[in-house]
Amino acid sequence: MAASASAQEDPAHALADKFSHAAEDEARAEQAREAEAARQAEAARKAAAAREIARRVAAEAARKAEVEAERQRAEDQRRADEAEMLRQARAEAEARRAAELKAQAERAQAERLEAERAQAERLQAERAQAQRLSREAEEKRRQEAKARLEAEHQAARAQAERLAREAEERHQAQARRDEEVRKAEAARMAREVEEQRRADERDSVEAQLLKEQTELEDKRQQELSEIAAKFRLAREARERAAREEAETARVEKKPDMEETRTSLGGPRPADTFDRPPERVSVLLIVEPRRPGKSTNPILCIEKSCYISAGDSDSAERVSRVQALGPGNTIGRRAGPCNKQRACIYRNVYLGDIASIQPIDLGFWGHKRHDIYTVRPDKSCDVIKGRLFCASPVIGHGYRAWIVPEDIAARAGADALEAALAEGLPPARSAALNGWTSTVRQDR
Questions:
Q1: What is the pLDDT of residue 224?
Q2: How many alpha carbons fall within 13 Å on the CB side of residue 379?
Q3: How far is CA 174 from each of CA 89, 159, 244, 441, rounded to the nearest angstrom?
Q4: Sign of dihedral through CA atoms 137, 138, 144, 147?
Q5: Mean pLDDT for the chain?
Q6: How far is residue 428's CA from residue 155's CA, in Å, rounded to a whole number?
Q7: pLDDT higher for 231 or 61?
Q8: pLDDT in tens, 177-199
Q9: Residues 6+ positions from 298 with CB-CB distance below 8 Å
């Protein structure tokens, strides 16, 4: 019975347990549902709270934006008001300044008018001899206006008269200037015509002179050739005689010839150079055509002429036609020797013997000096820095030293100039300005 009772109780217990378990499951499900509902409610609450917070934040942001916009509008309005107040203040200041300026101008005008009126009254009082009458202000203004108008009319009339006088004077001055310009132009044209006529005449004369000079030079060259031939024959005869004399002297051994001293104080040099120098320096002094006048000397040798280049440079060699033609006569003429009485011609080709002729260049004509046959002066020497030549060439109106170029180079430009300054004396003991010479002059 106990066993059957236990068997009967087990299903009840199992059913009870089943129902108990189902109730527990239902309770747990209910709790789960309630928890889910609570969770969902909490989530909804949080979402609603978040939405409320977002709404509040948006509302606060909108409020702040509106406040900022309102503040900005207030600031802009304040600035606009300040700008308007500043503009109004400036306008009022400008108006006050303009009013003050206007008032000052009116006061100045009033003071000026008052001064003018007072001056007019004083003048009127003086003219009327202190007669002062009481007049109405309107009458005074009318009289003053009338006086000012009359003064302006008088000033205008005086100005018009002055302008008229000035215009008349300007017209007369312009007429005089036009007349002077016309006369000057006429005189200029006359001068140009006269200068052209003179130039034509001068060209014609120069052409004729050039033709005559060319013909004369040709004739002179022919004469010089004949004279040179005669001189060559005479020179050959003199050289033969000199050689014979030298040979005789060497044979007889005359001691007195070796002991003879020249006027320069040294022993007499040999009769001839071992080899005659071909180039020389010619020191020339030319007398002017008229006392007190200058000269323009060039040196002509045979068919050529030399124009000096100074005391250090070689003289320039040109043809006679070129040197005496109008181009050189009107142009450089004698170069450094223009308007000089003394001149140096360096490094001139002379040869053993040649004919020289100084020529003084002139615009309308040349002065041709005498022609002489010369050779390098064997007596020239440099003694204590000074140049001496015992055999100067003496012509009519000129004197010259024919110095071998090596001796001239050894002497130097200063010694050459010093010799010219001393007048090319014939010897060391000769007078500085003497013109006497024992040198034979060959025509």
A1: 64
A2: 19
A3: 63, 22, 95, 74
A4: negative
A5: 79
A6: 97
A7: 61
A8: 888 888 888 888 888 788 778 77
A9: 305, 306, 307, 308, 323, 334, 337, 358, 359, 361
| The pTM of the whole model exceeds 0.85 | no
The secondary structure of 229-246 as a DSSP string is HHHHHHHHHHHHHHHHHH
Percentage of the chain lying above the pLDDT 90 cut: 16
Split at pLDDT 50, 70, 90, the class of 31 is: confident
DSSP secondary structure letters along 260-307 = -B-TTSSBPPPSS-SS--SEEEEEEEE--SSTT----EEEEETTEEEE
- What pLDDT is stored for residue 187 in this prediction? 85
In the chain, how long is the greatest CA-to-CA distance?
217
Which two tokens mark 210?
């050039």
Q: 311 in helix, strand or coil? A: coil
Q: Which residues pair with 356 in a beta bridge?
A: 301, 372
Angle (nearest 5°) at CA 40 between 34 and 44:
140
Q: How large is the average pLDDT for residues 336-345?
A: 92
The full DSSP string for 39-100 is HHHHHHHHHHHHHHHHHHHHHHHHHHHHHHHHHHHHHHHHHHHHHHHHHHHHHHHHHHHHHH
Whole-angstrom distance, CA of residue 314 vs CA of residue 249: 40
d(CA 347, CA 35): 145
Cβ atoms within 10 Å, residue 348: 23
- pLDDT band of residue 441 (cuts 50, 70, 90) is very low
